[in-house]
Amino acid sequence: MMTVWIVAAVMLIAASALTMFRVLAGPSTLDRLVALDTLIAVAMCGIGTWAAFSIDTTVTYSLTALALISFVGSISVARFRVPDVEEPPARQRVRRGQWGLHGRRGPR
Predict the structure, then answer these.
(1) Which residues cross the membrane (predicted)?
(2) Cβ(22)–Cβ(36) under 8 Å?
(3) Rounded Cα distance, 87 and 95, in Å
(4) Using one digit for the tens of pLDDT, what is the confidence trace for 5-29?
(5) Hey, which of 5, 18, 35, 98 would disulfide with 22, CB 3.0 to 4.6 Å?
(6) Mean pLDDT in residue range 28-40
(7) What percent of the chain has pLDDT over 70?
(8) How far apart are CA 41 and CA 79, in angstroms?
């Protein structure tokens, strides 16, 4: 039975190492956000594995707290994040529909 715990620990360490690589080398902020969510999920799996190994249920409350904090953090970052690359101001105005075809504001 001990080999099962060792295999689970090795898999969790490998998953966290690969996820940390994505956090550090992510090309965009959304890639880093997804990697951080994955890292928190791996940490939650590690806590759950430890709870099963030690037969101690007191650590399971931390799973609930970590899940709630992770959810709120992800939603707030996704809601208020700034785009990685700014567009030129003229393209922003045309895309948002503030300027007509001939550069005047709205219909006459």
Answers:
(1) 6-25, 34-53, 59-78
(2) no
(3) 10
(4) 999 999 999 999 999 999 998 888 8
(5) 35
(6) 89
(7) 77
(8) 21
CA–CA distance, 41 with 16 (Å, rounded to integer): 10
Average pLDDT, the chain: 83
79 CB burial (10 A radius; 0-12, 13-18, 19+): exposed
pLDDT digits (tens, 9 = 90+) for 80-97: 777 767 666 655 555 555
Alpha carbon separation from 94 to 29, 73, 85, 98, 106 (Å, rounded): 26, 33, 17, 6, 11
Q: What is the DSSP letter of 105?
A: B
Q: Which two tokens stand for residue 69?
A: 């904090």
| Residue 104: φ, ψ to 5° | -95, 165
Which pLDDT belongs to residue 108? 54
Question: Concatenated DSSP letters for 71-103?
Answer: HHHHHHHHHHPPPSSPPPHHHHHHHHT-B-TTS
Q: Which residues contact 59 (CB under 8 A, 6 or more apart)?
A: 47, 50, 51
